[in-house]
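The authors assume throughout that readers already know how a fold can be written as discrete tokens. In essence, backbone conformation is discretised, so a fold becomes a row of integers matching the chain in length. A single example would do more here than another paragraph of explanation. For illustration, here is how one protein appears when written out as sequence plus structure tokens:

…
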Amino acid sequence: MDVATIIGILVAWGALALAAFIGHVDVSIIFARYEAFLLVFGGSIGATMISFPLKTLVQGIGALGLVFGAVHLEERETIATLVAFAEKARREGLLALENEANELQDEFMRKGIQLVIDGRDTDIIRKILETEVGYVEQRYKKAESVWTTMGGYSPTLGIIGTVLGLIAMLKSLATLGSDSSNVAGTIGIATAQAFVATFFGISLANLLWLPFAGKIRERSQQVLLLREIMIEGILAIQAGDNPRLLEEKLHAFLGPEEREVEVEPGGTVGELDAAPAG
């Protein structure tokens, strides 16, 4: 479970609730208008379903695993593994990597090392791996766009709900006729109820849907960066580069604070294919 996502949701909605409490907002008005929530929530989902093919929609829902799940991306461990492979390849040859390659949990890295062992041409290996990375990147972008689209529709549906509420308010005022004794109170309550839909639309968009899209985008960038490290390391192993030079080369992908930590060869690589399903 990703702690930052859970804490972020609690802080965001907690701040909203605290602001309502301090401002003496009658929360019962908000929760009494459950039809406004249904309009915004259901309408946003329906409009998003119209906007995308079912496969893309499923990818977007599947990407919630990136938002709430703990994704372990160990760049330094990956570099350590690649350096260890380079050292063994220089000592014993590329064929000696086959047993270690079969034990790798990450399918992408295992596939790349196996292509090297099979003696594939450098350009072919790069093309195969970069094509796979490009496909994964497209899946991430589609998943992100699903939630970005929902974030765009929610406020609009909220405005539609508010317009419907105002129409209902004007109709109810017409029925009062000449009885103006309680017109002010009626207008106040009805107007407040009408704007509940706008509240739900803006809140869901900015406190859930758009942050979900942002988290998916951040996770995807981390995974794709790790893929780039793997590609460069795999091609360097095939070229027979010096392991120490390879380590320095791959450290260029890391931030300055991460480069200061010594990397011991022989690290392990976990499963990194957290791309949306589909």
